């Protein structure tokens, strides 16, 4: 028997004129099954293929969903190899039987008939995470992307093809709640639609007639369809109820990366920050698909082939052609210390009453740089000024905006003290206008 009666389709020997004792014959298990998991709405589309043994004429099959989170209102059956010759006529819900329905199928063919069955269920979820291993020189990185699927749906899925979707889905009803309703759709028994033993039957005509007695039909409203992306996990996996399973989604052996240390007191405080960059494009052996958001664990390959832990961080959804910036946290071995070594005021300007109306503030700063790593490091240093009226005497720098400059340099390995000095002149009061 199929476990927990997820899709327990059984042939029923049943006189047409009477719903009485029923003999059940178990049908073969699924031939194939595909899971498409939408995380944002706790929604999974299940598509499975089974081979039913049908006779010509009327066949009655039982569909059970007890102890699972299937939405019975979403179940759909199709026989693509026998289009128009196998039709689901109606669905009947026996009274006082929770999680069970009887399908009436009319078939113009006899024998083995492959059918596709699809439905929505709840209780399946996924999350992505990344394992990154830097080369010894930190110029290359192995990138492995895993998807962990957790199954709390009440049903085992054997040899399932798994697909996961990034995007937001809005539902009028929750699948888990629909799975617990009886009868489905919240339709009460009505005498005019009752058969023997008050069995409730749905047919196309009856659905249309009884619509006024039902809750609004379930709809899925999709937003930003162009932002959706489907991730298909290669091969098939068995995902049992109550278990989680890690599936490999991507494995790039040698991904070019750029390591950078950045000092920016406005953003990070008084410690340099360690960053790692790569781009989701073909030049980096990527670029075929976006990358899902998830946790990133980063290690470094040591010269003796052992691994050392570097950091853990998180990444957001990464579209194709977008550069990725991984923030690895405060740097322990690279230090930047700005020290004010001289300060004076000069070039005073006076108004008609003899009061000071403007002057220059001249500051001399020394940046003490230190690299205790066994590798040279690329370093960016941002310096922010109090206002946009200034001049500077310094080495090579880049003007970032009106009140910010950036130094960029390579600091050799094992550098104990590297000094970078600049003199900043800030124009105050009337001196701002005279300095233009």
What structural category do the secondary elements indicate?
mainly beta
Could you give the distance between the termini? 88 Å
Output the number of helix runs: 4
DSSP strand count = 30
How much helix, percentage-wise, in residues?
under 10%
Give the overall form. Answer: elongated
Number of discrete domains = 3
Major sheet size, sense and barrel closure: 7 strands, mixed
Low-confidence stretches: 1-26, 185-226
Kindly provide the radius of gyration, computed on alpha-carbon positions and rounded to a whole number of angstroms. Answer: 34 Å
Instruction: Tell me the fraction of residues in β-strands, as a range.
Output: over 45%
State mean pLDDT (0 to 100 scale).
80
InterPro entries: DUF4139 (IPR037291)
Pfam families: DUF4139
Domain DUF4139: 115-384
Protein name: DUF4139 domain-containing protein
Structural notes for this entry:
Helices cover 5% and strands 56% of the residues. A hairpin with a 2-residue loop joins strand 28 and strand 29. The model is unreliable at 1-26 and 185-226 (pLDDT under 50). The chain is mainly beta and 436 residues long. It is built from four helices and 30 strands. The chain has helices spanning 175-180, 204-210, 265-268, 430-434; strands at residues 10-13, 23-26, 32-38, 43-54, 57-64, 70-78, 86-93, 100-107, 111-121, 124-134, 140-151, 157-166, 169-171, 200-203, 220-222, 229-232, 237-239, 244-256, 258-263, 273-279, 294-301, 307-315, 323-330, 334-350, 356-371, 377-384, 390-393, 398-401, 404-411, 415-429. The strands form six sheets. Strands 3, 4, 6, 9, 12, 16 and 17 form a seven-stranded mixed sheet that branches. Strands 2-1-5-8-7-14 form a six-stranded antiparallel sheet. Strands 23-20-19-26-29-28 form a six-stranded mixed sheet. The protein folds into three domains: 3-122 and 173-213, no CATH class; 124-161 and 231-330, no CATH class; 334-434. It starts with 9 loop residues before the first strand and ends with a helix. This is DUF4139 domain-containing protein. It holds the Pfam family DUF4139. Residues 115-384 form the DUF4139 domain.
């Amino acid at each position: 028997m199929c476990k927990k009666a997820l899709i327990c389709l059984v042939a029923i020997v049943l006189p047409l004129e009477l719903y009485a004792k029923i003999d059940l014959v178990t049908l073969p298990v699924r031939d194939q099954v595909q899971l498409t998991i939408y995380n944002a709405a706790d929604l999974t589309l299940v598509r499975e293929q089974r081979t039913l043994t049908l006779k010509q004429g009327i066949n009655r099959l039982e569909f059970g969903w007890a102890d699972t989170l299937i939405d019975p209102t979403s179940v759909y059956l199709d026989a693509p190899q026998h289009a128009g010759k196998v039709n689901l006529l109606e669905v009947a819900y026996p009274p006082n039987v929770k999680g069970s329905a009887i399908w009436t199928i009319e078939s113009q063919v006899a024998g083995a008939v492959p059918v596709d069955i699809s439905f929505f269920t709840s209780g399946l979820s996924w999350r992505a995470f990344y394992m990154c291993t830097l080369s010894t020189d930190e110029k290359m990185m192995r990138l492995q992307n895993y998807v962990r699927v957790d199954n709390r749906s009440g049903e085992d899925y054997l040899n399932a093809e798994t697909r996961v979707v990034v995007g937001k889905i809005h539902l009028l009803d929750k699948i888990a709640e629909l799975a617990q309703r009886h009868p489905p759709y919240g339709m009460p028994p009505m005498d005019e639609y009752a058969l023997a033993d008050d069995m409730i039957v749905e047919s196309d005509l009856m659905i249309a007639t009884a619509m006024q007695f039902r809750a609004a039909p379930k709809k899925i409203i999709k937003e930003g369809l162009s932002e959706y992306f489907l991730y298909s996990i290669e091969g098939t996996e068995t995902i049992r109820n109550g278990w989680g399973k890690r599936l490999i989604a991507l494995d790039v052996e040698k991904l070019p990366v750029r390591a950078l240390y950045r000092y920016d007191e406005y953003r990070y405080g008084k410690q340099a920050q360690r960053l790692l960059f790569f781009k989701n494009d073909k030049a980096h052996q990527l670029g075929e698909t976006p990358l899902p958001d998830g946790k990133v664990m980063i290690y470094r390959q040591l010269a003796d082939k052992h691994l050392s832990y570097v950091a853990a961080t998180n990444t957001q959804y990464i579209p194709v052609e977008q550069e990725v910036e991984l923030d690895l946290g405060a740097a322990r071995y690279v230090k930047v210390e700005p020290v004010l070594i001289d300060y004076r005021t000069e070039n005073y300007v006076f108004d008609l009453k003899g009061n000071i109306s403007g002057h220059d503030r001249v500051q001399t700063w020394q940046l003490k740089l230190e690299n205790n790593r066994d590798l040279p490091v690329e370093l960016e240093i941002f310096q922010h000024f109090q206002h946009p009226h200034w001049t500077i005497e310094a080495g090579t720098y880049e003007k970032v905006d009106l009140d910010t400059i950036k130094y960029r340099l390579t600091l050799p390995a094992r550098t104990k003290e590297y000094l970078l000095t600049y003199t900043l002149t800030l124009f105050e009061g009337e001196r701002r206008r005279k300095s233009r």
